[in-house]
Write a structure and sequence with these properties.
It is a single chain. With 420 residues, the protein is mainly α. The chain has 18 helices and no strands. It has helices at 5-8, 15-46, 49-75, 79-102, 108-140, 146-174, 177-195, 211-223, 226-242, 248-255, 260-283, 290-310, 314-342, 348-360, 362-377, 379-400, 402-405, 413-416. Helix 3 packs antiparallel against helix 14 (348-360) and helix 3 (49-75) packs antiparallel against helix 15 (362-377). The chain is globular, with a radius of gyration of 21 Å. The termini are far apart.
């Protein structure tokens, strides 16, 4: 007898999880739309490739630095409250961006500085939002449903990552930067209201301990869990060296010669590929040899980026970015499940903060690396060299970490894969 849709996806029957997905989608949608607009805006103001890379650096510095302590705070705070506080902070930053867009600056460089300051503040918020949303997921979802729920959570994230840049491209072309930024504020206000529908979660009162010792425990847990540590490192270095999204404004104007709409489409292409893959994974979940599949997909991601780097045809470039997103989606799902299965409840905030340092911030570090390499080597060489380095990272990790090659989705993963 064929199973019904909800029998295959039992996590979707939980009302709290439905609200969680809506909130996650809306926040990611608004932030991706905002990021796309900022990259376009900065390049319009400066015409400088290195400045594009510095945008990522401006966000990653606080996201990494504060993550050492944000996980500790999240572990000692009710999770829904933390998520709401972060969304409120994002609204404030978005309102200030609108003000910067409308203010008649006599000096463009001062306007650029104001944008960078607000990007920095967004990085501060990210250091808290990432571990908060991860911890909230663990509170509202039974452990037995993690694999299925993780696929849907990743899908909501990717849906926002797809529609956000697409909407940004349309908004820039039809409404202008200022009105597009106002729309982002409206979306975030709605998401704040949606998130309030989630009930406050039971919060275990942990024994207060020195902050540095607590942070050290989170780091030690990750380092002593080979499967988790190697998966985070693989993702970190592949995105760090294989990222090309920051250079899309350069490809738009100097290599592919496409319109603003085309820029929005390319910016959304990896998300489109990821969304297609996650849709398949919701019905055909990963069950066998996830470790081997992880290596194949990260390798495929690298090859896609290399071909994109040398392409001068819009449609080939679009296809390669879609493929890169498809490969990346599988690695995201596998890594997310590893993270959920191996992390004890009382350490979720700290371990998620480490994840922010390793993975969530690798996109911004990758943006900086791309801008810096493009400044030194030229745009095409920078993307191709980065893709080749990513292939090297895949081969090295495959040879050195048998635990990840042999990883299986089992409840006792943390017992089997942690060093004695």
């Amino acid at each position: 007898m064929k199973q019904s849709f909800f029998e295959k996806n039992p996590s979707l029957l939980l009302r709290e999880f439905q609200i969680f997905l809506a909130s996650r989608f809306g926040v990611v949608f608004s932030l991706n739309m905002q990021t796309t607009i900022i990259f376009y805006w900065i390049y319009e103001l400066t015409k400088d490739k290195l400045t594009l890379g510095l945008i990522g650096l401006a966000e990653v510095i606080p996201a990494v630095g504060i993550s050492f302590f944000s996980g500790y705070i999240v572990d000692h705070t009710e999770k829904r409250k933390m998520v709401l506080a972060c969304i409120l902070g994002y609204i404030l930053v978005s309102v200030l961006l609108v003000g910067v867009a409308y203010f008649p600056f006599a000096d463009r460089s001062l306007q650029v500085v104001c944008i960078f300051v607000l990007v920095f503040l967004g990085g501060v918020l990210r250091a808290f939002y990432s571990p908060s949303i991860f911890s909230l997921f663990g509170k509202i979802m039974p452990k037995s449903l993690y694999p299925n729920a993780t696929s849907w959570s990743s899908m909501s994230w990717q849906l926002g990552a797809v529609i956000g840049p697409l909407t940004a491209g349309f908004s820039i072309a039809l409404l202008g930067i200022e009105n597009a930024l106002i729309f982002i504020v409206a979306v975030q206000v709605v998401m704040l209201l949606v998130t309030t529908s989630i009930k406050p979660q039971a919060h275990e009162v942990l024994v207060k301990e020195p902050v540095l010792r607590s942070v050290r425990e989170g780091l030690q847990f990750v380092f002593k869990t080979p499967v988790l540590f190697s998966a985070l490192c693989l993702d970190l270095f592949s995105v760090l060296f294989g990222g090309a999204i920051a250079l899309l404004p350069v490809y738009q104007k100097e290599i592919l010669f496409i319109s603003d709409m085309g820029y929005g489409i390319l910016r959304a292409a990896p998300g489109i590929g990821a969304l297609l893959t996650l849709g398949l994974l919701a019905f055909l979940p990963l069950k066998t040899k996830p470790g081997i599949k992880l290596f194949w997909c990260v390798g495929g991601f690298a090859v896609s980026i290399i071909i994109f780097g040398i392409s001068k045809n819009f449609y080939l470039s679009l296809a390669m970015l879609v493929l890169s997103g498809m490969f990346d989606a599988v690695s995201v799902v596998i890594r997310s499940i590893i993270l959920q299965l191996t992390t004890p409840d009382h350490m979720r905030g700290r371990v998620a903060a480490v994840n922010t340092m390793f993975v969530s911030s690798s996109n911004e570090l990758g943006d900086f690396e791309s801008g810096l390499m493009a400044h030194w080597l030229g745009t095409v060489r920078a993307v191709v060299v980065g893709g080749c380095i990513t292939l090297g990272v895949v081969l090295f990790t495959f040879a050195k970490v048998p635990q990840l090659r042999n990883f299986k989705f089992e409840d006792d993963t943390d017992k089997k894969n942690r060093e004695p």
